[in-house]
Amino acid sequence: MRFIHASDNNSLDKNDKMTKLRPLMNNLKQKFLDHTPIEQHLTYDESMIEYFGRHGCKQCIRNKPIRFGYKCWCLNNSSGYLTNFEVYQGSIPGTNTEDEQNFGKATAPMLSMIRELPETMRRQNLQFFF
What we know:
With 130 residues, the protein is an alpha+beta fold. 25% of the residues lie in helices and 25% in strands. Strands 1, 2, 3, 4 and 5 form a five-stranded mixed beta sheet that branches.
């Protein structure tokens, strides 16, 4: 398992804390978007992935069932299918910093996830639940 690589170590983005997993995450996101059922109702929420090791993206949120781990912003449809996601790392490389300034760090990932939705889905009258 120690020899499995998702990205080239010679061309790593220093600003992205998830740079070694970014190609795998982008591939997963594209597959989720390709196979998502087109629905009008979407939910946006945070989710914790339990992790006790050492990493710069690890969060500690007190009074939660999972206190230590990776915090992910998730966009799901009404049946619970994960449509899109983004791992929280303080700031998200490659996103619109204007969205972060205007709407905050919690809303900026949602706006970027909405922009990544297929055109057929964005044309619908979408309703978001938080």
